[in-house]
Amino acid sequence: MPPDVTLMSLCSDVRLLVKIVPGVDLIFVQTLDENENEALLGSVAPVDEEMIHVGLLELRAAWEEPDRFPPHRRSYPGILERDRRLAFCLGGLVQLASGLATDRSEPASFQQDAIVLTKAILADEQDEFETFLWENHGGKDGLQEAFADFVLALFLRSMAEAHTMIPDMVHILGWMDSLIYGAPQLERQIAGFAQAVYPNGAAGIRQQHGSDLAGFYVAADPAIRAAEAARKNRAPNLDRATFDATGNRSVYGKALCRCVAAVVRVSQAWREGTLTGRISEVWQ
Question: Is the pTM of this model over 0.70?
Fold first, then answer.
């Protein structure tokens, strides 16, 4: 299974970085900024190169014709549907360019996601997050159990919201059955992720991830430093070496370089009307 947390983190970082990286079309910047959820969905959805390529080609060909992208419901104008589809494609582009969306063992994916969660997403707020877990999710049983309860609640709430956006009342019973039948596997996977984040149960994150996968996320990488500055609303110092894959040592840093390069080059092809050939060529 792919490391979903890692892919969403990369997509979130790219969304922030395209605002300051030269060469990104304003359409891409605005679309990612205003449709973050669709971009995040694209970053973890089961997409492939052909799907994203065809989607981008169709969007570019009819970008000035919003009626070509009819909304699912009349309350949504076609232009919003168009923007949301582009955001999804750009999230899918990030997934493909990252090179990380490959099938691997669950423990390996959970370990990678645990590192990204602690170092990139929680970062300086780890203590506050763990206090929240202790106080609101049965922390008396240990942080591992509390974290699993929190993630499960978050996932179920997201599933409910996703369905009610465009409810399919004809097949709602089938939708409910699928959710119920999939619950045991979901709970098992969440438990595995919780074990990767808190392998020692009640001990905090800082006591458990000192050297795990040390080469996966290196804060000193220039690309990661730029992303961390952007997360804190600070202007990063960018130069030609910032997103040079050879100058970034970690797996995450190199993946971030590929993702930014892919968006920049696809943006250029979008402006020039040259979205042809294999889309993977833009980051290779």
Answer: yes
